[in-house]
């Protein structure tokens, strides 16, 4: 059956009667859906862009948007909600594109050497770039909102607090933070819980920033940061945390990661894994979104909840608690998008228009997948072997209000 | 290498220096372990019993204990803690016994016909038997303790309350309870949350009891109980719950079960699965404990956490929250053991000594596996498809004190 762009749009309109939008085509025609004024307009400046969108899904959409042959006005989320529909995801990517994706997948496999390159490509755009739109603690991961009205600053501090509470972190305990970013969790655990924290990262700029931050805040007795691969770190810790790093491990290395976590924890020690994941068996064997892999996270892999838990179980890491914070990530991304757009002129001056368009559509795409699509944010609490002293209830996990930001 | 009983005991003593116990052998010898007075004594009245214990693990132990060739004085839990050790679990069951186990496994497969027989064999011993040692609501599943000092009555009511809170049960909503037992959850949801509940069970005695209970309590407008297999029930419900029934589904039927749950829930509806499970990859392909399968739960199967979540994901059931209540089940079993022993003379008069010995060792074995071994109790909250209105935090799940028992 011939699948034209208009056919697909009209088929989707049937399934999403509450979505109102307009599609301005290259030939001057406009297709509208919904019974109310459109809340977005998608401009397709060429037939080629429409064809790539239909054939290559997010890869075509992302590349055409970056190139400026697609523009979007109004509420991008409502547009992307349609994009989450299976009809757009079940695209027929040409064999040549598939071959390119597969080669890039092989090239980006997270060997110890390649991991550093993969990480650097995303996190070493310059700390001043991230400082323009992240909260002051520079948490580049899902925050924890007590209410949707919470500020981003408060919600990131609340995330740190929630994790410390789940981990039952005690003064003087040692904590390992794999993928420590710019040190936000480390500083919180040191200041509020008097913990001794080792953080490791593969980003040179994160490493330099965190080293300087530890010095500036006078926390050298409690905090240590290393430019190191998780496979190379040694020692035994009371507690373990990893926030938004597991997505970089890759399917092939999940068992290696769990084996290492097991080795690094003391018997009975508690760990918290905070990671994006999927619960959906559909597309189980795929290598994730090809546009994201190509432009945003080379070597990245969104793990399935069951494969995380199986790998834990195989290494005697006992799952105690799982919380799905999916909608918190949609809120977090909403803040980042708002702050990014407020600074967009400065960011464009630092980089270029294609970079700005790439980041904008990346943010929006992620927000849409958390809100309407397949991605989740899991916090999984576990112990190394059995831990018979953990509290019976979760009352201690409740985060109170008025957690003040750490300047 | 020759593996004698004394060798095994002495090897274990090295690994569990805190355990103090005595083993009185058939030949008059006594082996003691630990540096303090023994807290238990295991009497082995024949060499055959010792040999079966070594070769057949729990199957040999259970059968010899039932036959009276093994006796235990003192703290059975400390003895069974040793029994959880891998050296006892890695037993060399003779081929003839293996063949018998496999045939029994085939015979007990949970076809619609066989399920009723399997359920009846455990739950139709007579309601008066269960009333002797369960709480007044007759909850034959893990309770929820706010403190270890909570009474069993309070802890079972708290379990119902916790589930209603996780499910955000609202007045007038419809709830399906698969494996409703003697109706405790149904009555709680009707009385405290004004819900309309359908409960289904395969036990005739549970069905008769629950029907009479609904009539007696005047809840006929809100509650309906059916003697029905889950595969045969129809309709669409706002909420779903299943407490301690999933263990009877069997590995082969897990996808069938999830498909049915998906069909029975309204889009966006919430479900709670409360089930024993395992997180451990070791022994992943085994059919569970052969003694338990033979004597306690024919057709029973302890699912793995990852296989539960994979089956959910494959059916678009989105995991929102998981809580491991393992130690709550150890506490629950402690209450049941205490109450059982208080009534042991009456129970023995109703049945026989072999039955009493079988139930005693079943209870103790289960308590030990929750406390020291491989079994867990998972509460998994999920939604059918995405549910974007669920609260951001878990504050609403917190169970307050002073939940009064429903007489």
From TrEMBL, chains A, B:
Pfam families to which the protein is assigned, alphabetical: CMAS, DUF7884
UniProt family annotation: Belongs to the CFA/CMAS family.
The protein, known as: Cyclopropane-fatty-acyl-phospholipid synthase
Stored SUPFAM superfamilies: S-adenosyl-L-methionine-dependent methyltransferases
Active site: 366
GO molecular function: cyclopropane-fatty-acyl-phospholipid synthase activity
Any one GO BP annotation for this protein: methylation
Highest taxon of source: Bacteria
Organism annotation: Desulfurispirillum indicum (strain ATCC BAA-1389 / DSM 22839 / S5)
Domain DUF7884: from-to ranges: 24-82
Enzyme Commission number(s) from the entry: 2.1.1.79
Keyword annotations from UniProtKB, A to Z: Lipid metabolism, Methyltransferase, S-adenosyl-L-methionine, Transferase
Iron-sulfur keyword on record: no
Cited InterPro entries: CFA/CMAS, CMAS, DUF7884, SAM-dependent_MTases_sf
First-level EC class: transferase
